[in-house]
Amino acid sequence: MTSKYFIFSLLITVLASCGGVKEGQHPSGGIYTEAGQHYTLDSMEYEFYTKKMTVKPQIEDYLNLHYAVISEKGDTIASTYRLGKPVDTKLVAPRTKNDPLQVLQYVAAGDSLAVWVDAKANFALNRRPLPDSIPAGSKLKYAYQIYGIKPFQTKIKERRLEEDAILRKLFVDKKFDLNKIFYHAESGLYWEEIFDGGWIGRRKPVMGDSIMLNYRTYDVQGNLLDQSVKEKYVPYKIGSQYILPAWDFAIMNLLLVNKEVRLYIPSHLGFGDRPQPIRNYQTGIEMELMPFTILVCELKLMGIVQ
After folding, report:
1. φ, ψ for residue 229 (rounded to 5)?
2. How is the chain split among helix, strand and coil, in percent rounded to 5?
3. What is the pTM of this model?
4. Are 88 and 64 a contacting pair, CB within 8 Å?
5. How far, CA to CA in Å, does 76 sit from each of 67, 132, 134, 162?
6. Relative to the CA of 173, which of 52, 119, 132, 259 has its CA 20 to 30 Å away?
7. Dist. CA 147–CA 110, nearest whole Å
8. H helices present in the chain, as ranges
9. Is residue 237 pLDDT above 80, yes or no?
10. Which tens digits make up the pLDDT trace of 78-92?
11. Share of the chain above pLDDT 70, in %
């Protein structure tokens, strides 16, 4: 009797291991990644359709991938396939237990996989309300195809070259007088003078000064993103690290009171490689800039507060 019970229990265990949904958390702290097996992980589910046993990425590496987000009804909510080529996506630490990044930490070039997440929690994670067309309690499917992994420094070097080419093309397409465009080779910043304002008797800002600025910020297509309110200057303290690196450079090296310059700012001197929420001081409208956004800023130094 005991022997029969033992055999029956063993058979159930074997059958359970051959199919169904398994717990994805590995005792070592990682996750299971066997291809063709459906796993649960906290409030998510995932499955690798193909799995390559190569080096996994590090946090801050870039994954070259395609992805699609699909509702339970089969509607495509977002997709990189519409762009016609894979995108580079930075791998950051998971924000919550409902974040697909928990699984993407364990991918390799050549993998294909899907991650199912709670729809409402996922929209909340991205600071967006759940659309009426997606039922509360339903799941979203994130389908991924991984093409490659780029170390962080490799991606940054590539992007700096790309952005420099974009700016140089802009100057040619707009038929700028290139003799009036200045370039700081060490930083990659371009600029031009809009208004000199005369040089006599004006003090140059120094570290620690509080200054009053007027500014306008555009994207590289010329769309206005942000500006100071007319007749209300924006105060800054030099060296406070609350302003863009390009602004620090311009204030310390280019500006005198009443002088105005236009800066062409590659992303590493702007908001960098992360999405950046900004708020228009005039309209109060909030928006989010994409990673690696090139900016064009017009700065005028209105005064130095003693």
Report:
1. -70, 135
2. 20, 35, 45
3. 0.72
4. yes
5. 11, 15, 11, 30
6. 259
7. 5
8. 2-17, 101-104, 119-125, 152-173, 245-253
9. no
10. 999 998 999 999 999
11. 86
DSSP label at 30? Answer: S
Other CB atoms within a 10 A radius of the CB of residue 25 amount to 15
Cβ atoms 70, 141 nearer than 8 A: yes
In 10 A of CB 146, how many CB atoms? 23
Q: How many Cα atoms occupy the beta-carbon half-sphere of 1 within 13 Å? A: 0
Residue 243 in contact with residue 215, Cβ under 8 Å? no
Q: Which two tokens stand for residue 164?
A: 């420099």
Please check whether residue 31 is in contact with residue 103, taking contact to mean a CB–CB distance below 8 angstroms.
yes
One-letter amino acid of 304:
I
- H-state helical runs in 234-305: 245-253
Dihedrals φ, ψ of 280, to 5°? -70, 120
238 is written with which tokens?
A: 């030099």
Kindly compute the dihedral angle of the four CA atoms of residues 294, 300, 303, 304, in this order, to the nearest 10 degrees: 30
- 210 three-class SS: strand
Q: How confident is the model at residue 295 (pLDDT cuts 50, 70, 90)?
A: very high
| Paired tokens of 221 | 């297509």
**Ramachandran sector of residue 241 (left: φ over 0; alpha: ψ -120 to 50; beta: rest):** left
Q: Characterize the bridge pairing of strands 62-70 and 87-90.
A: antiparallel
User: Is residue 215 within 8 Å of 227, Cβ to Cβ?
Assistant: yes
What domains are defined for the chain? 18-150 (3.10.50.40), 154-305 (3.10.50.40)
CA distances from 124 to 43, 95, 130 (A): 15, 12, 8
Residue 61 has pLDDT above 80, yes or no: yes
DSSP string over 32-101: ---BT-EEEETTEEEEEEE---SPPPPTT-EEEEEEEEE-TTS-EEEESGGGTS-EEEE----SSTT-TH
State both tokens at 258. 């009443």
